[in-house]
Every structure is written in structure tokens, then in C-alpha cells.
């Protein structure tokens, strides 16, 4: 009876810690995305899409291979979750803690469905990335990739959620401690602690440096089109042979 009362206290508190942390994470992603890894990665994917579709003939193969790697990762996670869930379901009818095992199977099922949706969005993106450029294509492709990554993250969170459920079998104290430990680890995985990082910062600096070089050259009377050695050694050698 004492263990039962401890379970009624510790289990809800452990779940409350995990739920509260993820509510805080969602609010932080919407309000201060640059402070979270999820927000920074979403902006980085938008920049990646802009880079890939700027030259489809050059970057098409690289883009498709990158998306294929994401599909393979989601496929591996989906296969793992459905396999473990199926193995656990075999023992559900032959154990006294059927309720706890059913919660574990439910989490694995949610993880499987989320990874399937992730594969679906990545498959759509692999077709869209090689299409000719059109109005709104870049924004739509970035949204598709971010949705695929969102379902990947949800599937991974559901996979993490099975850890305290597994430890719940050994007692409410182990489950409660694992909830705090997982929350502590996830905080360092999700939170960057800096709002100054910008995925576009490098590109903006490169454009600024190029414009500064051109302005200095024009002020000194340097013709960059004629002085091809400043652009490429291959062009310089070609001009020397032609003269």
C-alpha cells in the first residue's frame, strides 16, 4: 500500500517535469528560435534550400543525396521502433504489469508513425528540389523539409519517452529520477544559450567583403573584368595565351 501511494505521487510528478519542459521548449522556439537548436536548424535548412536551388544543375545530386540520408535515418528509426514495440507486445499477455507495457508499446507506435510521416515529407522534398525554379518554390520546399524534421524530432522524443516507462517497471523512484535526468540532458541538447547566432551571417559577411573589394578596386581604377588574375588563375593563363 505504501509503494502504491508512492507510485501515485512520483509518476505524475515525473511526467509533469517532462511535459513542463517541452511546453517551455515550444514557447522558446516560437519566441526566441535562435536560442534553440531546433530553431537554428530550421533557419539553416531554409538557407540550405536557397543554396541548393540557386544552381540545380550543380547542386541537384548533392541535394538529393542529403535528403536520401535523412530518409534512411527515418527509416532506421521507424524499423527500430516497430520491431521493439512488436517484441514487447508479445510479452504483454504473459506479465502482471500489462498496463505499463502497453504504455511503452503506445510510445513506440507513436514514434513509428512520426518517422513514417518524416519519410513522407522527405520523399516529397526529393522531387521538389530538382524542379525548375518558380514562384514560392523555395519557401514551400523549406517548409516541407522543416515538417519532415519536425516529425523526426517528435518520433525521437517519443523514443526518449519510453526510457522512464521502462524504468517504471522497476519502481516509481527510478521512473521519477529518470524523468529528471532526461530533462537535464535534453536541456543541453536543445538549448544553445546564445541568441546572436544567425545562419545567414556568413553569407552576409561574404557579400559585404566582395562589395568592399569591388568598391576599393573601382576607386583605384582597377578593372576586375580585365584583370582576370584577381578572379581566377585559369582565366589569367587563358588571357596570357590569347595575347
From TrEMBL:
<feature type="transmembrane region" description="Helical">
    <location>
        <begin position="101"/>
        <end position="119"/>
    </location>
</feature>
<feature type="transmembrane region" description="Helical">
    <location>
        <begin position="6"/>
        <end position="27"/>
    </location>
</feature>
<feature type="transmembrane region" description="Helical">
    <location>
        <begin position="166"/>
        <end position="189"/>
    </location>
</feature>
<protein>
    <recommendedName>
        <fullName>DUF599 domain-containing protein</fullName>
    </recommendedName>
</protein>
<keyword id="KW-0812">Transmembrane</keyword>
<keyword id="KW-0472">Membrane</keyword>
<dbReference type="Pfam" id="PF04654">
    <property type="entry name" value="DUF599"/>
</dbReference>
<dbReference type="InterPro" id="IPR006747">
    <property type="entry name" value="DUF599"/>
</dbReference>
<keyword id="KW-1133">Transmembrane helix</keyword>
<feature type="transmembrane region" description="Helical">
    <location>
        <begin position="75"/>
        <end position="95"/>
    </location>
</feature>
